[in-house]
Amino acid sequence: MLTTSKTHQNFRPVLLTVCITIILWVGSKWYFQDWFENPWKYPAKASSLIATVLMCWCIVLSTRLRWIEDYFGGLDKVYQIHKRLGKWSFYVILAHPVFLAFDRLPDLLGFLRRFWFLPSEGDRYIVGHNLGVAALLLMAALVTVTLWVRIPYHRWKKTHEWFGFVLLVIIVHIVSVDRDVSSYPALGIWVYGLLAVASASFVYIRFLYRFWGPRFPYRVAGIDRQGEILEITFEPEEKKMDFRPSQFVYLVVNKEGITPEPHPYSIACGYNLESRFKLGIKKSGDHTRTLDLLEKGDSVTVYGPYGHFSDRFLSAERDCVFIGGGIGITPFIGMWHIALHSEERLSPAEAPQWLERLHPESITSWKSPRVALFYVCITHDQASFDNDIRNEVILSKFKGFKSLEDRGHHYELYLSSRQGLISANYIDSRVDGGIRERNIFLCGPSPMVGALIKQFQALGVPKGQIITEDFNLLY
Prior knowledge:
By secondary structure, the chain is α/β, with parallel strands linked by helices. It is 48% helix and 15% strand. Helix 3 packs across helix 4.
């Protein structure tokens, strides 16, 4: 079952390609004076073209290509757009057969026949119609599984791969019906170009990504089990992965009893020259529970890293407020460590140029913003990272919470079972100097994140100062 973020996303390039498609279609109609006699065909054709463009974008956005992630501001944003476009493409394509069948009314039986397979008798258009019906039925089944049926993640992942077959059937359908796309050169070049890009994208992510993607062999260096949370430390076997705090990786484990599909997890530590990293994983689903079988020394493959969540923190342009709900605290662990451990940094003279360029937080000239961290859980026994966060304070140069607060930092474990839902007003009252001049970072359940965004904006916090990480793939 799929969850979709309610946060604002950048749909401008998608809307641009939709507009270009419609303009090319209408312009071709006008240029060739090839207008429909049946007026219902206009919304029918428009819906099919729009749905095709949206589906092409869905597949392109699934490739995890670095330039796509950079443009949209993080892979979490890319996947939120991907999920929305997937739903929209299905709803839009439903209008296509409905409007095509409208000219059969009031003959209800004739109207309904247009939604099912017809005897082709060698008619190329009827063959295309039947392929369209097949594509729609398959897409409906896959979307149903994605949106409304709760199934194990690895099975959902397998069903999702069938969307490539849907794309193939749509291409054959377009060629078979031999109508507008095939008839108008400009429109045909544009639409077939989009379909070609989408097809290449599917081949890449389905078959080539495992070889060509940013992959690194790692092994398990240690495991700490705390209730439903696994804190797993990994070390490189060969090539080291460069990462920033709060980024995430796709973890692939080839061990009996553990499902092998890639799954994203946030890095819960700061960068170090050994390229060791920690993942905090909550055992909440079929895949995460099988990870309990991991042992020290087990080999894994990680793909990534992805994400831009920490960029604004590392720029040190403003003081910061971190709000992590539940397992959403993990992206903040590395940034919290960096904010507190300035004595571990290298001087500009002894730091390699590449380190100073890629990791300014590792250099003594970098001054950490003041950070107020709120860890939001329902009950205390769910706050698995509370001890880690507090230990960072003890092991840092501050040596305790009084010195930490004197410097302007703040940490608080917020338990909603005792204190109710956390609010922007409460956070504002607990942050020295208030929150209006700070960058506010949010990661956690979508309802909490969405509610807090509205409250912060109502308090006068500009939208540009609110940064979210929203990687809710399932459940």
